[in-house]
Amino acid sequence: MAWKARGLHIQARREFAGLGAFAAFTEGLAVEADKVFYTGLGPVAENIKKHAVAVVGDESKLKPLAPSTIADKEAKGYQFPDAPLIATGEMRASISAFYFPGVPQAMVGSPDVKLLWHHLGARTGRNHASTLPSRPVLDFAVRESEAENIIMMEQAAGQALGILI
After folding, report:
1. Cα 83-89-113 angle, rounded to 5 deg
2. What is the predicted pLDDT for the residue at 117?
């Protein structure tokens, strides 16, 4: 058996006593492949969450704040007046990873609707006179963590199939 994943080539040789033994082995592979999702998605979701939390407030990744916004945050006494998306820290703290053992899916998000407004951009203020530029925190997090997530899933596959990667 051989397969290739992102430049990694794994080959294993296995002999079977007959077609029945081979069929039993391939059935077991399907079950083991499901385990990859079950064991790999939780850590991947947590990794994306870690990156999302790090993006909030990172001026190098998000559009800079308008001078009027910085002045307003300074007047209100915020600790980091020039940091995008940080006022009290509640929105950043609300970013969560959700995954359930035995279900092959995971989500990263926030119940704080402000994160959605910032992600998509919005019109705010009286008569919608102000514009919030789009600051897609979760998009950045997914892109930044992609290589790590692929490695994590490859390791989960190796563990499920009993191969050290």
Report:
1. 100
2. 86
How many C-alpha atoms does 70 have within 13 Å on its Cβ side?
Answer: 9
Strands 2-5 and 8-11: antiparallel
Q: Is 77 left (phi over 0), alpha (psi -120 to 50) or beta?
A: left
3-class state of residue 16 by DSSP: coil
Give the model confidence (pLDDT) of 67-79 as tens digits. Answer: 988 898 899 988 8
Examine the pLDDT at 33 and tell me if it is beyond 70: no
Please give the biggest Cα pair distance in the chain: 78
pLDDT digits (tens, 9 = 90+) for 81-128: 888 888 888 889 999 998 877 677 788 888 998 888 888 888 877 777
Give the N- to C-terminal CA distance of the chain in Å, as an integer.
15
Give residue for tokens 């209100």.
76
Nearest Cα to Cα of residue 95 among 61, 131, 45: 45
Three-state SS at 48: helix
CB proximity list for 32: less than 8 A, separation 6 or greater: 160, 161
Distance of CA 81 to the CA centre of its chain: 27
- CA 6 vs. chain centroid, Å, equals 19
Please name the residue that has the structure tokens 């077991």. 28
